[in-house]
Amino acid sequence: MATIGVKEVAALAGVSIGTVSNVLNRPDKVTEATAARVHAAIEQLGFIRNDAARQLRAGSSRAIGLVILDVANPFFTGLARGAQERAAESGLSVILGYSDEKVEREASYLDLFEEQRVHGVLLSPAAEPGPRLERLRAHGIPAVLVDRLSTDTSFSSVSVDDIRGGATAVGHLLAQGRRRIAFIGGPLTIRQVSDRLHGASEAASAEPRASLEVVTVSALTVAEGRRVGRQIARRDPAARPDAVFAANDLVALGVLEAMLIEGTVKIPEQMSLIGYDDIGFAGSAMVPVSSIRQPMALMGQTAVDVLMEEASGAGRAAQHVVFQPELVVRESSQR
Amino acid sequence: MATIGVKEVAALAGVSIGTVSNVLNRPDKVTEATAARVHAAIEQLGFIRNDAARQLRAGSSRAIGLVILDVANPFFTGLARGAQERAAESGLSVILGYSDEKVEREASYLDLFEEQRVHGVLLSPAAEPGPRLERLRAHGIPAVLVDRLSTDTSFSSVSVDDIRGGATAVGHLLAQGRRRIAFIGGPLTIRQVSDRLHGASEAASAEPRASLEVVTVSALTVAEGRRVGRQIARRDPAARPDAVFAANDLVALGVLEAMLIEGTVKIPEQMSLIGYDDIGFAGSAMVPVSSIRQPMALMGQTAVDVLMEEASGAGRAAQHVVFQPELVVRESSQR
DNA sequence: GTCGAAGATTGAATCGTTTTATTGCGACGG
DNA sequence: CCGTCGCAATAAAACGATTCAATCTTCGAC
């Protein structure tokens, strides 16, 4: 297994190693004929450049690090996908890690990334930025926080406006003529949930005749949605809401199933329903469920853009990009 | 942004750079007192070793490459998770890429991995092994194929026995006393689907009184399952199967929904239903759906194990590990 | 025919760590 | 009391690509 390096290529092509490097990195600096010869040699020897040596010289690698909270969550995989693709356009690769919300796992990824001298770090943080992030910055590795606004605004961030999302959802329900609205979600300690509720109540209070009932669940799951949905379905018709805004699509799907099983409430005729996240299942439910879509891929792309900007040392000031979620209207909310 | 290297650490600790390296890599070779001094210096300076330089010297990196077909597929994310965790135990990190079934994307990842001089490659291949894999091997980088048995048995592989899975599913239905069984799945050009059907028909033919009807769908989606399910629900009761084996859980969920809406067939009383993959939704459906679970995480772990074995140069012969899928019985198939 | 400028090519220095041969040193046995 | 053995620590040589300053071509202009 003889190791093939620029040296061997140079020898075969009858040029110096410097020229080989030029062919690889500044093709314009080299004559077409020699370039061809060198390429032929590369091909013939099956030369693959050693990235370690390259980045040792360059000082930093052609990779960026990305830490997400959960691999199983479509939101984060969408984010990763967007980041991945944008990075590839700039010839960067993405090292993906997931922290499972664990601070120590996040920390070990950050250490790894620093050892690798990554170009920059995209982080969906499990906690407030700690000393590790500061050190990254001190070492010239920029970081961009995704999906979480930090109280520490000195790090750039890319996030989505959940308050606005909540307001949009309820606004849509109001526009359909609904007035007795129920918010189903919880636990309220999750910031995303409380933000969505916040937006919902804002929108509701803008319409004098509207009321907002808050029904909390212990987890954002189909089962919980179904449980609460059943309770609502069995209420006296006069006491039932005429619209439900669920804190995510799983809960919405549970509510929908409960209504279908109980059969007392027809969706969308008697009750409008809207969820949040626009997961694939929402659109393929028995009654396609309206939802609020977060531009996941776009967020990933933008995060990379911001990162590159910081890496180029351009703007010293941190940027905070906030995306507006998008209303996706389907059958469940239209009458 | 002064760059901190072993040199600076050595200077501060009053030792040579060689000693610093020893402290880091062979702590036993060094006196406790000096080790303490060096560690103090490292701490004080915030030294992080440069992995590029390290691996330049070492010849290969502390990472393995993993290419999966699809980020959104829980099977692959489970696989990635298992691989990730097993690799971390050995101090290796995983570079994750996804090919979207595109050969050229797969190829570009393999090139990247080779530039990075990864320890090894785990590949869920989009096509038959090509020259790139051969070259990897020629360069001393082992590769393990996951989830796809290759006709080229010279590469090690870790896969799951879909034929057996199909047989298990139908065997379970037969054990429940069902005889008129329908297989719903497609397109049959997908090997996984045809394997499952193959196993299903094997199991069915072992029971003389059993019949197996094959209903093909154009895609493994909820919508397709629902469409076909509706047709079946509307058949004359005598012409209806008494059990359905869906090629994956999405289709099974669609079938379930159709039965619930049409109301003509009760699951599980009048018809047993079983899916495949055991995605999270299967267990939380209105009627929890039985399924065939593939040991995703275990496959990932095992793939890494096999890889490490090959990397250590031990066994020259390729290994082929085949996992047996597991039957998960829930309400939808029990009467 | 010579000179100069522009462009192509070269070669040595460099990145930061690991490794190996070597030195220094104290202790122990003869 | 000297030689030797063992252990710590050191210094210098890798690893392989990139990058300049320096050298060499080529070619047009005078």
Automatic annotation (TrEMBL), chains A, B:
MF-aspect GO terms: DNA binding
PANTHER family hit by this protein: HTH-TYPE TRANSCRIPTIONAL REGULATOR GALS, LACI-RELATED TRANSCRIPTIONAL REPRESSOR
UniProt entry keywords in alphabetical sequence: DNA-binding, Transcription, Transcription regulation
Domain annotation HTH lacI-type: ranges: 4-58
Pfam families the UniProt entry points to: LacI, Peripla_BP_3
PROSITE patterns according to UniProt: HTH_LACI_1, HTH_LACI_2
Coiled-coil residue windows: none
Species lineage: Bacteria, Bacillati, Actinomycetota, Actinomycetes, Micrococcales
Protein name per the record: LacI family DNA-binding transcriptional regulator
InterPro entries given in the database record: HTH_LacI, LacI/GalR-like_sensor, Lambda_DNA-bd_dom_sf, Peripla_BP_I
Gene3D superfamilies in the cross-refs: 3.40.50.2300, lambda repressor-like DNA-binding domains
Protein's organism: Frondihabitans cladoniiphilus
